[in-house]
Amino acid sequence: MVIVDGQRCGYCGGCVSLCPVGAIELAETRLVIDQTCIDCGLCLGVCPVGALSLEEQEAKRGCQGLALRQRYDVVVVGAGPAGSTAARRAAELGLSVLLLEKRQEIGSPVRCAEGVGHEMLMPFIEPDEHWISATIDKAQFTTIAGDTTETRRAEGGRGYVLERRVFDRVLAEKAVEAGAQLAVKTAAKGLLVEDGVVRGVLIEGQGDVEIEAAVVIGADGVESRLGPWAGLDTTLSQKDAMACAQLLLSGIDIDPTCCSYYISQQMAPGGYAWVFPKGEGKANVGLGVQADLAAMPALDYLVRFIEGQPHLAQGSPVTLVVGGVPVALPPERLVTDGCMLVGDAARQVDPLTGGGITNAMTAGQYAAEVAAQAVETGDTSARKLAKYEERWASALGRKMARNYRLKERFAPPQRASRNFVRLFAMAASM
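Request: output the structure for the sequence above.
Response:
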């Protein structure tokens, strides 16, 4: 039977059409070959990366990429906004940096409503039409409680709905321009730990290789494994986890400059629904539900929401996005000897809105600057790296802690109240 090397396969699907018995299936992240395979080998030659072989041949291992060094000052795991910002800043400060991304394409799949405020974005990058889908200057907040529906509208300020597939890639490119080395389709599968101190990472995708580092920065998202590997407890409770689903709808009639929010315990228990424009006639339409309150999957709530909104129901789905969002306080510790967590991996998301793009970028910059000080002094202990925790806690961390307290103060059935909506609107405009 034909063997698929999952580390090399690019999921292009070119081999599927050559199989005479339909034994090859292209799943989202893997190629599947079932028992009907007749070992004809017709698919082997068409694979552009040599990921297919016959059973009696030895499958090759490792991505064909640039050679990696054995040691770096900093290894950043995850090339989202937090990781790329950390890698860029560390490289700007003169450190040798390796940025790892487990997927073969940075920015995909998108797991985000893609909204961001102008003021929070400006310290990191100038807005560019190439990665902005819509410029926003209005917001609408609709609450539904029983038979009562209220809508409030706010104008002024400026924000954007991004094209994350492009935006994330641009951030990674800027890290490379600053001097960082980037390796895609290269996942961290463990940490190198010596006497309780993190000394580097074990990676796959370039073969199983040990990469030493003075500091490892974990930016590997809500599904982070690096934190637990380092002994940092990042476990979420159900009440602090939002299950989210989003469709990019096309062919709908909306104001392309207005983001809309819908708060209703029946519509989205413990969460809310959103409509974020992506240009004329298109929008990200999604919702999040509190994991311990959901009576059905988030996608089912989303379909019901869309069907109940005539201006949305006329649209057609183009893309489906699903995922989880942490709406918790950060873990008690964000650092250990030789290691720091940033972004979703560190639960640095606004507990009221679930927004986290610029939070992640801020944390990435803080972590890189503390890492540079630690490397310069030769002290990468948790005590030294704790300056990152302190800096986060005294700035954005304080706001996030306040918003978490507000979330806890208003029980889900109370979140359609005017007081909560006023606070939610303030957080959404940050």
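The radius of gyration is 23 Å.
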